[in-house]
Amino acid sequence: AGRVALSITGCTDKQTSAGTGKGGMFTRALCRALEELQREDADGLMTSQVYNRTIQKYKEFKLPAHTQDITIHGCGLRPQQVPW
Fold first, then answer.
1. Out of 3-7, 35-39, 55-59, least confident range
2. According to the 3-state scheme, what is the secondary structure of 2-56?
3. What pLDDT was estimated at residue 58?
4. How far apart are CA 39 and CA 48, in angstroms?
5. Rounded to the nearest 5°, which phi and psi values hold at 16?
6. Residue 42's pLDDT is what?
7. Ramachandran region of residue 21, left (φ > 0), alpha (ψ -120 to 50) or beta?
8. CB of 80 closer than 8 Å to CB of 47
9. Helices 47-61 & 25-39 angle (0-180, nearest 10)
10. Residue 18 confidence class, pLDDT cut points 50, 70, 90
């Protein structure tokens, strides 16, 4: 059987991550996304849902002068097929 792997990164190799003093922008967006999804009682989350909500939260709170490209890459399955 093949292996499945997913990677979510907070910025590309050519970018720097923006710190907030309480974790980076990606980390904060991911935490906000998970907190919001949990409040919505979302059972059985898929990785794609968490990623999409993370992007939404990043855009909502991003620093105007700094942009990061949060990306997802997978091998073996698509993100909407992988439970969080």
1. 3-7
2. CCCEEEEECCCCCCCCCECCCCEHHHHHHHHHHHHHHHCCCCCCEHHHHHHHHHH
3. 95
4. 18
5. -115, 150
6. 67
7. left
8. yes
9. 120
10. confident
Quick one: which of 13, 20, 15 has its CA closest to 63? 20
Quote the CA–CA distance of 7 and 10 in Å, as a whole number.
10
User: How far from 83 is each of 6, 35, 41, 46, 50, CA to CA, in Å?
Assistant: 11, 17, 15, 4, 10
Provide the 8-state DSSP code for 83: B
Nearest of 66, 74, 72, 35 to residue 52 by alpha carbon:
72
Q: For residue 44, what pLDDT band results from cuts at 50, 70 and 90?
A: confident
Sign of CA dihedral 57, 46, 72, 31: positive
Residue indicated by tokens 């997802």? 72
